[in-house]
Specification:
The chain starts with 6 loop residues before the first helix and ends in an 11-residue tail after the last strand. It is mainly beta. It folds into 4 domains: 18-73, no CATH class; 101-165; 181-245; 259-308 and 328-381, L,D-transpeptidase catalytic domain-like (Beta Barrel). It has 6 helices and 25 strands.
């Protein structure tokens, strides 16, 4: 015979059965008064279980797995997802990306002759390219006694097999038809998003490829130094896979309504503004940190040149760190020898690469060259994405 429960015990059992989710978990917490901010109990003393996060959010640390889960659960994406107000510029496929054909010197030292016949006769070269990283402009090709020669300047010829032709980047940034309401970014290397920050790649998510443009709807910092961005429903990617663009106000020193250029050394991006409105954005390659850094500061364009030769001012040909670049296109000097200019010799935009200048994809360099005047402010700065006091 089963004894009936006493009324008190029966009531207690019913209470346990109908406790709201999270209350039972709260029993594991240190004893506090009815207020989460009881005297003598700090945020660091509290175990932030999901129940406490949902009921007493202010009593929990801002960062941590529980807090992240709470915030992620409360993200509400707009429906439908808004489109970025960008105009992707699509130039004529027949249009030349750069004003010249360029080639890399792959065999050094390289003797340069006034004419191929001089080499055949054993006459001395007009000059010799000895070392480093050297690029030349190609004028044309000729054949002499069955051998191909390339003309690189007036009265300067080299054997064709000493050069390798370059392939300038086809990438181009975007024009903005109106002020963007969200930050956006280019994927800088292929990535498959995760469903949650710091989660494994989601095999059902699309693969985002390099130079693909995405919108950033939310962000989550994860200690010690990770920032994750929400780029679509349940699609999170870590900061290192993107180069982000945010709308920033003009820095002190820029007149109201003036055109100005922002260079973000951390994100490796550039934005052009007219007053407070962003009108253009793209990727860059600035100097390598700790080696050939690009100095931050507010500067002004002091000189513009459609093409210019560039070389290392600290050494001469013969040094392993020597470089010589012929006919660099659309150059705008803004701080001594530091310049914004087109780079025809690489396609690594979104990563540091240069000797200190701000390298631009050729089409972007041309757009900026035609848009900016001498005197246009150039604001070069570093803005890490991590919360103040956190991260590297």
């Amino acid at each position: 015979m089963v004894k009936p429960l006493r009324p008190f015990a029966s009531f207690a059992l019913l209470c346990l059965l109908f406790l709201p989710f999270g209350v039972a978990e709260a029993r594991e917490l240190p004893f506090v008064s009815s207020s989460p901010s009881a005297p003598g109990v700090g945020v660091s003393d509290i175990v932030c279980t999901p129940g406490r996060l949902w009921r007493w959010r202010p009593s929990c640390p801002e960062y941590g797995p529980g807090a992240t889960s709470y915030r992620v659960a409360h993200i509400r994406l707009p429906n439908p997802l808004p489109q970025l107000p960008v105009v992707e510029l699509k130039p004529d496929p027949e249009e030349k990306v750069v004003p010249y054909i360029y080639a890399h010197v792959r065999r050094l030292p390289l003797e340069v002759y006034r004419h191929p016949m001089d080499a055949a006769l054993g006459l001395p070269p007009v000059r010799v390219l000895y070392s480093g990283r050297q690029w030349v402009s190609v004028v044309g090709t000729v054949e002499y006694e069955g051998q191909q020669w390339i003309q690189i300047n007036a009265n300067e010829f080299v054997p064709a097999d000493a050069l390798a032709f370059g392939r300038p980047s086809q990438f181009q940034g975007v024009y903005l038809s109106e002020q963007p309401q969200y930050s956006f970014a280019w994927i800088n290397r292929a990535v498959r998003p995760s469903r949650v920050p710091q989660g494994p790649p989601d095999p059902s998510a699309p693969l985002y490829r390099r130079y693909q443009l995405v919108t950033i709807y939310a962000q989550e910092f994860r200690a010690p130094q990770e920032m994750w961005y929400l780029i679509g429903p349940d699609q999170w990617v870590e900061q290192k896979y993107v180069s982000r663009v945010t709308v920033d106000p003009p820095p002190p020193g820029v007149p109201p309504g003036a055109r100005w250029i922002e260079v973000d050394l951390f994100e490796q991006t550039l934005a052009a503004y007219e007053g407070e409105r962003m009108v253009y954005a793209t990727l860059i390659s600035s100097g390598r940190v700790g080696q050939t850094p690009t100095p931050p500061g507010l500067f002004r364009i002091w000189g513009k040149f459609a093409v210019a030769k560039m070389s290392n001012p600290d050494v001469r040909d013969g040094s392993p760190i020597w470089y010589y670049l012929e006919d660099v296109p659309w150059v705008m000097y803004y701080h001594g020898a530091y310049a914004l200019h087109g780079a025809y010799w690489h396609d690594a935009f979104g990563f540091t690469r240069s000797y200190g200048c701000v390298n631009l994809p050729p089409r972007d360099a041309r757009w900026l060259y035609e848009w900016a005047d001498v005197g246009t402010p150039v604001w070069v700065h570093i803005t890490p994405p991590f919360p103040q006091g956190e991260g590297p």
